[in-house]
UniProtKB/TrEMBL annotation:
The chain crosses the membrane at residues 34-57, 69-88, 100-120. SUPFAM superfamilies: PP2C-like. It comes from Streptosporangium subroseum. Keywords: Hydrolase, Membrane, Transmembrane, Transmembrane helix. GO terms for molecular function: phosphatase activity. Residues 152-366 form the PPM-type phosphatase domain. It comes from the Bacteria. PANTHER family: STAGE II SPORULATION PROTEIN E, STAGE II SPORULATION PROTEIN E-RELATED. This is Serine phosphatase RsbU, regulator of sigma subunit. InterPro entries: Bact_Sigma-Reg, PPM-type-like_dom_sf, PPM-type_phosphatase-like_dom. The keyword GTP-binding does not apply. The keyword Transmembrane helix applies.
Length: 377
């Protein structure tokens, strides 16, 4: 029921957003007529000496912002008709001054029609890019299950720094295997299409190795081998891998990634740093220390937040980083996804502008389960 309620809530919020956008568009489409009507009323009240007829050009200028070609042309025609009517009424038509004003209105109308055509062409191109990006995102970043095993709730949030593409180099996945629930959250060095391709290599290798390898270290080796075959130059991927077994702990291997934040049932929070620093994936040729698994508590009522550096390195206008640790209380809501959505909204408010880097977050919650009446009997 909680999942259904959260789904309906998000759908309702999307509906409100679409209604707000629709009303804004309707207002912008009416604005040219309102402006021209106001100019006509003021000109009639002020007389021929006011010299307001040139302001009728504001109508087609405003129309180019939100109107199509036909409506922009109509607004320009209305502006010219009002100009002629007011000129005849004030007996100033066909003077040198009014002729210049008429040419100006014609010029603004033509320019507005051309600007409207360019805007519509750009909007169509942007819609095509977004549709392709959304299709790629569905393949690359598949929807994670809302539940992963008995009593384990999952929530995910992804915000791309490239608003037109909606996807980038951050990655995440949750798979249920015979060895337990396995999770990966990572960040590919760099941006653009090359980063997306590398993320696809990592996710493909993880989805296969997570089922085949009995130990989490074996999954890391498989990822290293896949990246060695695919990467060129000095590219690398930071990642944290986790495995939820039958006990009350999570096994974690951290490959140069920000440490997950642990939230206990009593409200305390801390960052689960690895015992030894390890290099990111793709740098095995340096023969550094192999990443060692360690355990973090995952008791009923506890939570673990995995994230990328786009979260903790997000700065506001004053240059202050996002204080993730002091925002841990936002994750205490009844529904994991709504709680994570609240944290994401707070992150965007902190920055106050588009993010400079992709930001991915994945929340695991160990739900408190109670025995049923039959089990208690």
């Amino acid at each position: 029921m909680a999942s259904l309620g959260s789904t309906r809530t998000r759908a309702f919020l999307r509906l409100l957003a679409s209604i707000g956008t629709s009303r804004t568009q309707d207002t912008l489409k009416l604005l040219p007529f309102v402006v021209m009507g106001a100019v006509a009323v003021v000109d009639l009240a002020s007389g021929p000496t006011a010299g307001l007829l040139s302001m009728l050009a504001l109508g087609p200028a405003f129309a180019s912002v939100a109107c199509g070609l036909a409506r922009t042309t109509l607004v320009g025609a209305v502006a010219l008709a009002l100009f002629v009517a007011l000129g005849l009424y004030n007996d100033i038509l066909w003077t040198s001054r009014t002729n210049i004003t008429m040419i100006a209105i014609l010029g603004v109308t033509v320019a507005s029609v051309l600007a409207s055509a360019g805007r519509l062409r750009h909007e169509r191109q942007l819609a095509d890019v977004r549709s392709v990006a959304e299709a790629a995102q569905r393949v690359l970043l598949r929807p994670v299950p809302r539940r992963a095993g008995p009593g384990i709730g999952v929530a995910v949030s992804y915000t791309s720094a490239t608003a037109e593409a909606r996807i980038g180099g951050d990655l995440y996945e949750v798979v249920t295997t015979p060895h337990g629930v396995r999770v990966i959250v990572g960040d590919v060095q760099g941006k653009g299409l090359e980063a997306v391709e590398t993320a696809a290599v990592v996710l493909g290798a993880f989805r296969e190795a997570a089922h085949d390898e009995s130990r989490l270290q074996g999954v890391v080796v498989r990822l290293e081998n896949a990246l060695t075959r695919e990467l060129s130059g000095e590219q690398f991927v930071t990642a944290v891998l986790a495995e939820i077994g039958a006990g009350s702990t999570i096994t974690v291997i951290n490959c140069g990634h920000p440490s997950p934040m642990v939230l206990s049932a009593d409200g305390k929070s801390w960052f689960a740093d690895p015992p030894d620093e390890a290099l990111p994936l793709g740098m095995s040729s340096l023969k550094a220390i192999e990443p060692m698994p360690y355990h973090i508590p995952f008791e009923p009522g506890g939570q673990v937040l995995f994230y990328t550096d786009g979260v903790i390195e997000a700065r506001n206008g004053r240059g202050a980083f996002y204080p993730l640790s002091s925002r841990a209380h936002l994750l205490n809501g009844s529904d994991p996804q709504l709680s994570l959505d609240a944290l994401r909204a707070d992150l965007l408010r902190h920055v106050g502008r588009p993010l400079g880097d992709d930001a991915a977050m994945l929340l695991l919650r160990h739900r408190v389960t109670y025995p049923t009446a039959s089990a208690a009997a």
